[in-house]
Amino acid sequence: MRAPHRRLGHATAAEWLAQPPDARLELIDGELHPKALPDVPHAQAQGAVIASVRTAFHRRGGGGHPGGWWILPEVDIALDGQGYRPDIAGWRREHVPAMPLERPVTLRPDWICEVVSASNASTDTVLKLRKYHAAGVLHYWLVDPASQTLTVYRHQAEGYLAALAAKRGETVRAEPFEAIELRAGLLLGDDPDDPAE
Length: 197
Description:
CATH superfamily of the largest domain: tt1808, chain A
Oligomer: single chain
Mean pLDDT: 91
CATH architecture of the largest domain: Alpha-Beta Complex
Shape: globular
Structural class: alpha+beta
Radius of gyration: 16 Å
Number of helices: 4
Number of domains: 2
Helix content: 10-25%
Number of strands: 12
Strand content: 25-35%
Distance between the termini: 40 Å
C-alpha cells in the first residue's frame, strides 16, 4: 500500500501515527514519505547487519559478547517533530536501561543504520543524513548494496564525519561496534558460509 505524498508542511504527527504500519511511511518536514519496499539485496543487507551486530551487542554483555545495546529493526521513532522508521536503530543501555516499547519511540538512538534503496537513495544519503545529524544521532551507517559499500558517520558539531568507508572484501572495526570485526561483504549480503575474500 503506497500513500500519496502530502503537500510540504501539512501532515501532522497524529496523521503519521494513524497510518497502518504496512504503509511504511515517514514524516519529514510535514510530508509523508513512503519508504521503499525492500528488494532482495536490501533485505539481505538489513538481515546481515542485524545478524552481525545484534547477536554481539543486543544483550547485557558477558560470555564473550560485548553487549550493552538495544538493537531494533523497523521501529517508528519521533525526533525533533519528524517521524522515522529506520532500517535498524540502537540505544546504549547505559542511556536507556529498559528496552523502548512505546510507539513512536521518543528516545534518540545512539546509532542508526539505513540500507540504501535505489528508488529513494537521496532520502537516506542526503535528507536523513542532515536530519539525523540535527537530532544528535551520534553514529549513522549507510549500507549500500548497489555500490557495495559501508559508510560509517560520526557526529561532529559541524556535520557528520565519514569515519570509515569499506567495500566488499574488507574486514573492519566500525564504530560504535569496534569491539568486534565485521566483514563488509557479510553486511552487504554475502553468504556467511562462503570463504572470506
